[in-house]
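Ticket #4471: structure export looks truncated?
Reporter: QA, pipeline team
Priority: medium

Steps to reproduce: submit the single chain below to the structure queue and open the exported record.
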Amino acid sequence: MSDDTKALQQAILNSPSYLLAEDDLELLKSPELRGIRLELELLKPELVQQEEGVESTIVLFGGSRILESSEAKSRLDAAKQALASDPDDAAKQLAVRVAERLSDKSRYYDEARELGRIVSSNCQIGGRCEFVVVTGGGPGIMEAGNRGAHDVGAKSMGLNITLPCEQAPNPYISPELCFQFRYFAIRKMHFLMRARALVAFPGGFGTLDELFVALTLIQTGKTEPIPVILFGRDFWEKLINWQFLIDEGTIAPDDLNLISYAETAAEAWEIIVKANPTHIQPV
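Actual output as written to the record:
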């Protein structure tokens, strides 16, 4: 074979069109293959959970900005120091007020961590993977839930999502159960596919989005009824005027039966136990 012929053949071998479809990353990332990517995002975590023996989960939602007390206090101190240098700065005044509110909410980090510990120590026994704590995989309340499971040597899951800003999984997720998603819709499906309860701590847009998706699916019978526990009644009732929705006729009075409230990890655990008598026993 001449050098020219060899060069022609090598050009063919190097052509993207000659790649096996499964090895062609540009093809897999193309808009036309979005359906395939959606299916892969559904299948990969499902297959891994089957391999790991995950039978059921408890979902913890909550704000990424709600930190443990030491970190929250440190940020409050920094905000106060910044304000001291320029007391009339409106943005710095707001930063102090926000830091104070977040510092007050640091107790929710402790409660989420405690709930993760209680659930995991009572359900991941005898080699079983019942009621595995699953979070969005990020910092704040999500970290606290995973950390509680880690405290007792139990598995926990994190469902990260690709975002414009850099996001890394918190260090307390079980490595074999840490997943990354491109599509919010598939991620939400995995939150609910094995869920036996959902606990929503105070949070922002993401927490509200996930909460209302779950409530809608339960209300419309698209998923099995599970407890939806709102942590911190005062926060939620200030945020959402449920009675207004009833008075306006946009939801039925019975729809509020989908929601329970808890102030402590022990209260949330009691609700979970009551709703799942055949799966777990009270402590």
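Status: closed, not a bug. The export was complete when the record was re-opened. Leaving a note from the reviewer for reference: The chain has twelve helices and seven strands.
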